[in-house]
Design goal:
The complex is a heterodimer.
Chain A: E1 4-9, H1 17-30, E2 35-39, H2 47-50, H3 61-65, H4 71-74, E3 76-77, E4 84-87, H5 100-111, E5 116-120, H6 127-135, E6 138-143, H7 147-162, E7 169-175, H8 177-181, H9 188-195, E8 198-204, H10 207-215, H11 226-238, H12 248-251, H13 256-264, H14 268-271
Parallel strand pairs in A: 1-5, 1-6, 2-4, 2-5, 6-7, 7-8
Antiparallel strand pairs in A: 3-4
Helix pairs in contact in A: 1-11, 5-6
Chain B: H1 11-14, E1 15-20, E2 23-28, H2 34-47, E3 56-62, H3 68-81, E4 85-91, H4 93-109, E5 121-123, E6 156-160, E7 168-171, E8 174-178, E9 186-189, E10 193-199, E11 202-205, E12 215-220, E13 225-227, H5 234-248, E14 253-258, E15 261-266
Parallel strand pairs in B: 2-3, 3-4, 5-7, 6-8, 7-9, 8-10, 9-11, 10-12, 11-13
Antiparallel strand pairs in B: 1-2, 12-14, 14-15
Classes of the chains: A alpha/beta, B alpha/beta.
The structure holds adenosine-5'-diphosphate and magnesium ion (MG).
Residues 10, 13-19, 123, 173-174, 203, 205-206, 209-210, 213, 227 of chain A line the site of adenosine-5'-diphosphate.
């Protein structure tokens, strides 16, 4: 088996990289892939918390690269999803304690055994970021519809190009349809125009994310959650399925008629006048 | 001055071929875009192939500075279309001195710009150094039919694609960006900056101190426009957000120096961006 390594990155902190890593990773595993997620946010680890695996950590990423344990010993198996594993970040070290070469080497070895290796990247564009992108063949760039996050995403896309990753796809997270409709939040198409990349997911802002984080159960298990459903779709798109992009601004409310129209491929905007 | 070369009648001026005994001399006009010059040269050599079946040639590139690639292109044309062997490329020695000064000035001027990791840094070839080039040498083949209206053309570097946050692109001549310049990107040119897209980043034209340079963009929400040593005055800067959005958003703009400050105005179709154009405005 030879899988691929995907980095989840953003530049700005707090936009949803860790949330997206946990959810996309889980959803990919639920689609019968062998998946490993790696938390490279050394010193600020929290992917384990979001996945509810905190108290299973024995060895972490730094232990692996410093050869205090074998890779298999640092792979923490997920509670629910079949073939899903976590490599946790070290809590008490910093980003400079691993090198890009070490992470590249680890990912190459994991790719032999897994379909997807997802690297949760730290914020910023320093060493930790450079390590994470060095290991990846593909990148998912997470942003929110805010100018500061978009600026950082733009910078990161430029840096990805510079390190030969030209296929960055965008996740726009925390979209508030109501604010977009009132003109108080940037429209997804504005964000995509500006960044000149393709979207792979448009995730609405969703309070269930917070509950799920607190429970340590990714929101993709919550079938009622609009963000969870979009993370499931993102995983399907990564897996090569073609699913049309659904902008949360256009999506709700969903009446039966809307669903029929969607099935028939009729655009809501035009059909509203019928 | 930045003028599109449209007229075929100027072709003969772009490349002059003259014989000096056993030596053939080819001079390429300073202002000619290299593509056009190569094409003209190819046509001319092909037409008079028998005249140039053997011998040595000196290629005078005047006040232009060529990259190795560009030299290679000229060499290829000559070798393909004639039996001439290239003795040497010749350029105006003053241009080398001036170019060195210019580049070191540009470096000094922007030494305060933080070097960004992996940021795309472009130091392009020089555009033509000056408009007052005077190509000497008798022109054997086109003597007598010099058209009365000749256009002085200049060259520009072209950047395709999105210029992204953190990128610093520097040019020692004019630059044309075919794409957007995003917030946080910087375009710095000694000459004019023309953006076929939205200019939302910082632009500094005339970076060597030339306040006659212009900035032109299909639409603009640039946080800062600089020309030569001038900025927009504080009044304008204060109003920047509002004014740009209201008046110019989505519309072409031109920025130039008037009364010692950068002025932004809508770019109208009949606008001239001839630098000598409107002396009263400066
Ligand atoms: N779609 C969403 N709706 C609501 N809250 C979200 C959403 N995505 C992320 N969050 C919240 O935003 C915060 C930051 O998310 P996180 O994934 O830790 O960001 P990062 O890893 O980029 O720093 C967390 O508290 C998380 O619960
Ligand atoms: Mg995180």
């Amino acid at each position: 088996m030879s899988g691929k390594t995907i980095v989840m990155t953003s530049g700005k902190g707090g936009v949803g990289k860790t949330t997206a890593t946990a959810n996309v990773g889980t959803a990919l595993a639920l689609r019968s892939n062998r998946v490993v997620v790696i938390d490279t946010d050394i010193g600020l680890r929290n992917l384990d918390v979001v996945m509810g695996l905190e108290n299973r950590i024995v060895y972490d990423l730094v232990d692996v690269v410093e050869e205090r344990c074998r890779i298999e010993q640092a792979l923490i198996r997920d509670k629910h999803a079949g073939e899903l594993y976590l490599v946790a970040a070290a809590q008490t070290r910093d980003k400079d304690c691993i090198t890009a070469e070490q992470l590249v080497d680890l990912c190459r070895r994991l790719e032999l055994d897994f379909d997807y290796v997802i690297v949760d990247c730290p914020a910023g564009i320093e060493q930790g970021f450079r390590n994470a992108i060095a290991a990846a063949q593909e990148a998912l760039v997470v942003t929110t519809p805010e100018v500061s996050a978009i600026r950082d995403a733009d910078r990161v896309i430029g840096l990805l190009h510079a390190s030969d990753i030209h296929t960055a796809k965008l996740i726009i997270n925390r979209i508030k349809p109501e604010m977009v409709r009132q003109g108080d939040m940037l429209d997804s198409s504005d964000v995509l125009d500006m960044l000149a990349v393709d979207a792979i997911g448009l995730v609405p802002s969703d309070d269930r994310v917070i509950t799920s984080t607190n429970n340590g159960t990714p929101v993709v298990y919550d079938t009622q959650s609009p963000s969870g459903r979009e993370f499931v779709r993102i995983a399907a798109r990564i897996d090569g399925e073609y699913l049309p992009m659904i902008d949360p601004v256009e999506e709700q409310p969903t009446s039966i008629m809307d669903k029929v129209r969607t099935l028939m491929g009729i655009n809501r905007k035009t059909s509203a006048h019928v | 001055m930045w003028v599109m070369v449209e007229s075929a009648t100027t072709d003969q001026e772009l490349v002059k071929i003259s014989g000096r005994g056993a030596l053939v001399n080819i001079s390429v006009d300073d202002g000619a875009p290299l593509n056009l010059a190569c094409k003209t040269l190819r046509d001319r050599l092909a037409r008079d192939r028998q005249l140039y079946s053997h011998g040595e040639v000196v290629v005078d590139i005047g006040k232009r500075i060529l990259s190795d690639d560009d030299q290679g292109r000229i060499r290829k044309v000559i070798e393909a279309e004639s039996g001439l062997t290239i003795k040497e490329f010749w350029c105006d020695p003053t241009v080398l001195v001036r170019e060195r000064e210019r580049i070191s000035d540009l470096m000094d001027l922007h030494s305060n710009v933080p070097e960004q990791i992996n940021g795309r840094e472009v130091m392009a070839n020089a555009g033509p150094a000056a408009a007052d080039s005077d190509i000497t040498g008798d022109d054997a083949s086109v003597a007598g039919d010099t058209p009365s209206t000749t256009r002085q053309s200049v060259s520009a570097d072209i950047v395709r694609g999105t210029c992204r946050a953190g990128e610093v692109l520097k040019f020692s001549g004019n630059v044309v960006v075919v794409g957007n310049v995003n917030p946080g990107a910087q375009i710095i040119a000694q000459g004019d900056i023309l953006v076929f897209g939205a200019l939302r980043g910082t632009a500094h034209a005339g970076a060597g101190g030339d306040s006659t340079a212009v900035i032109l963009a299909m639409s603009s929400a640039a946080p800062q426009l600089r020309i030569g040593d001038f900025l927009e005055d504080e009044d304008a800067l204060d109003r920047i957000a509002g004014r740009r959005r209201d008046d110019f958003e989505g519309k072409p703009i031109i920025a130039r120096v008037q009364n010692r400050a950068v002025r932004v105005s809508p770019y109208l179709r009949n606008h001239s961006i001839d630098h000598g154009g409107n002396p009263n405005e400066r």
